[in-house]
Amino acid sequence: MNTQTLNPTGRTHATAIGVNKVLRNTYALLSMTLMFSALAAGISMTLNLPHPGLLLTLVGYFGLLFATTRFRNSSLGLVFVFALTGFMGYTLGPILNAYMALANGGQLVMTAMGATGAIFLGMSGYALVSRRDFSFMGSFLMVGILVGFLAAIGAVLFEIPALSLAVSAVFVLLMSGLILYETSNIVHGGETNYIMATVTLFVAIFNLFTSLLHLLGFMGGQE
Fold this sequence. Notes:
Blueprint: H1 8-46, H2 54-70, H3 75-100, H4 105-130, H5 138-157, H6 161-187, H7 194-219
């Protein structure tokens, strides 16, 4: 009769190595996509490109997101990650131009950027240090984001500023929670694909920044 000696310590060590690899790859790719997106936004601002509009934005975003998910386990996944984040940077350019045209636009943009960075570092840092499992937040975040997304479309279509403002406030909370959740998911081995982890964190950062910018613009009396 054959017998096998189980080695929980070795298995745990191998798991830890795998988690650390996903974390390193995720943060490396996230840094590169953020810089690439910023470059795309800068080009869009410099050329004063028009916003593609709600329909084209949704088609481009979900189309590239689907392609990224479809090829997440191949090198093509990396191509689509940069295509997606570059496209999102392009759509951000016209928005930033609109804010920069305001009297205190530069200050608003920098404040939103700083707050976004602080929230990301705080949420991801807490998940990494505490090692708590925040998987219980998954269902709540999924429903909240879906409802918020539909409400945001309604606010744009029916031109309801109060609803748009409420959606921005809710999205700040939801995206902060998503950063916490996804980082915890990586730490506990729930997310093993660094491409998908990068996309999730990038989208959270992007939406967090634009939501804060909207709120700061309103509080500053510029909207």
